[in-house]
Specification:
heterodimer; A: alpha/beta; TIM Barrel; four-stranded mixed sheet; 10 helices; 9 strands; 41% helix; 15% strand; B: five-stranded parallel sheet; disordered C terminus
């Protein structure tokens, strides 16, 4: 029997808590476009820029209104390109974590290239935010069998890319422990909006997903993008998130946490 | 005149394509990160489905790849122990062209694996990607299979076409694209749970009153499937909905295959539209 395919039954939430939720933002600025084409990026290649100069501010305003501390996954290249947006995120007290350097596909690059991308990302985060990231979500959550070991080796505390469980869990790699905070496709805005689904449908799906995940005591990780094409940064789509955040508030036994707080709980 | 078991007005087949990590490994992908969808099937999705079937007290048929069965033998055994059926679904979810020699080898290999783990040979097969070769059903028949469930071309069972001729020993039990939960619904279609439940119910209502034949295929994975809590709930709500109709008979695939293979029940005359089908 291969034990990695069996879920643990031993996980418990803190006293008085039934389930947890995180609000995560995949920043995915122009690094998305620039990873496959040369600058300049404009017109239909500027959706990432919409996110950096408009969408992210709309999201920050929304989070402030609902008292949400979110976790932002930001590529190093994007962090260096948009200093004003980075300062706004940081000053609002949100958690900042890594999403590689230039929107690399970690499932298709070599281990050395993965290491280089992490090094460049860490250097950029250190330069922009004054500290290295301790959390990671792979661009589009694509990663290889070795990626988590590499993260553990480099001192990361959590990954938030896998879709293989209902609850967080700890991974042991070479004597180091890494928390995994699972995230599932229907909790992400991109698959709906890249198919041009209306906001009403996305709200309904998020609410239903949250409701069922809460009922089983799982972790619900909302994952949104500030982008103009497949993201939630535009007005109608910001509005679509409000019932979800209101529903969080209506559940007193829900722990709305940052990814770092959840990792602390998993690793304690 | 076709007759269903128990004098039912409508037969209902609840089938699951388990698609654990073999699906990704077969494509050369590491089953990690966003590609860990299949691991969820073994850890959470399939146990969740089995709990639903136990609660609802209905039989189901689970299609398993040979590689996945090797990785999760305890799941295969749980399915059998709970009265459901395990059927074959490729070795590494081969949804691409393989040579005839390789196909023959993989069909036999998976057959041996499942027979060994389940303690009983699989009696049915469903192609992982929907395609077959000219020899596929002949090999399966030789191995003792009673049915294939790869086609999507008729509202009801009919004699399988083996080596170009309608067989009197093997039946085709087709599946339905509209009651499949994978890529076009939860993947490419990005449909929400309430839309999919409506779609499934709509399909059942229509089929109940016409062919009396309803089959659904759910995947127990995280994405491109129904393994997650909200989506598994859609499956259970569909079952609740179906149970509100009179004279419905839930069946395992192999039980229906045996029923249909009895000429007295009216399924072994080739339907006219399919008579010349190669």
């Amino acid at each position: 029997m291969s034990t990695h395919l069996v879920a643990s039954d031993s996980f418990v939430w803190p006293e008085g808590i039934q389930a947890a939720a995180t609000v995560t933002v995949n920043f995915a600025g122009e690094s998305v476009e620039h990873s496959t084409m040369d600058l300049p990026l404009w017109g239909r290649n500027a959706h990432g820029r919409y996110g950096a100069q408009q969408g992210v501010y709309n999201l920050l305003e929304l989070f402030a209104r609902y008292g949400i501390k979110a976790t932002f996954f930001i590529g190093g290249w994007d962090a260096e390109r948009y200093p004003e947006a980075m300062a706004a995120i940081d000053e609002a007290g949100h958690e900042i974590a890594s999403q590689g350097y230039l929107h690399e596909d970690f499932s298709r690059i070599s281990l050395d290239e993965q290491r280089t991308a992490l090094e460049r990302s860490e250097a950029a985060h250190l330069n922009v935010f004054g500290h290295k990231p301790v959390g990671f979500r792979a661009p589009d959550r694509l990663m290889s069998r070795q990626t988590r070991a590499l993260l553990a080796e480099r001192g990361y505390r959590y990954d938030a890319s896998y879709c293989d469980d209902d609850q967080p869990y700890a991974v042991e790699v070479d004597g180091r422990r890494l928390a995994e905070l699972p995230i599932h496709e229907p909790w992400i805005d991109k698959p709906y909006y890249e198919k041009h689904r209306v906001a009403r449908v996305v709200t309904g799906s998020f609410l239903d997903e949250f409701d069922a995940t809460y009922a089983i005591g799982g972790l619900f990780s909302l994952a949104i993008h500030p982008r103009g094409d497949y993201g939630s940064g535009r007005g109608a789509r910001i509005r679509a998130l409000e019932p979800v955040l209101r529903s969080f508030q209506d559940h007193p036994r829900l722990w709305v946490a940052t990814c770092g707080e959840l990792a602390d709980w998993v690793l304690q | 005149m076709k007759q269903w078991p128990n004098g039912a007005r409508c037969v209902v087949l609840i089938t699951v394509d388990s698609d654990v990590t073999g699906n990704e490994i077969g494509k050369g992908l590491d089953p990690d990160g966003a590609n860990a969808l299949g691991a969820y099937s073994a850890k959470r999705g399939l146990p969740r489905f089995l709990d639903i079937f136990a609660r609802q007290q209905i039989p189901a048929t689970v299609f398993f790849g040979g590689y996945d069965a090797e990785q999760s033998p305890e799941l295969v055994q749980r399915i059998i122990a709970e009265g459901h059926e395990v059927a074959a679904h490729g070795y590494l979810h081969e949804s691409w062209d393989v040579s005839l020699e390789e196909e023959d080898r993989l069909l036999r290999k998976t057959h041996e694996i499942i027979t060994h783990i389940a303690g009983t040979p699989p009696l049915g097969w469903r192609s992982p990607g929907g395609q077959k070769s000219a020899q596929t059903l002949a090999v399966l028949r030789e191995l003792g299979y009673l049915y294939d469930s790869s086609d999507k071309d008729f509202d009801g069972p009919y004699p399988a076409v083996v080596r170009g001729e309608p067989s009197d020993a093997m039946v085709e039990i087709p599946n339905i694209t509209s009651t499949l939960d994978d890529a076009y619904m939860y993947g490419i279609g990005a449909m929400s749970t309430d839309e999919i439940l409506d779609l499934f119910k709509e399909e059942f209502d229509a089929l109940y009153h016409t062919a009396g034949y309803f089959i659904t295929t759910c995947h127990s994975r995280s994405g491109r499937g129904s393994g997650l809590p909200a989506r598994a709930r859609v499956l259970e709500r569909l079952i609740d909905h179906i149970k509100r109709y009179p004279d419905v008979h839930f069946s395992r695939m192999s039980d229906l295959a045996r029923w249909c293979l009895d000429p007295a029940h009216g399924f072994m005359q080739p339907a006219t539209r399919l008579g010349g089908r190669k």
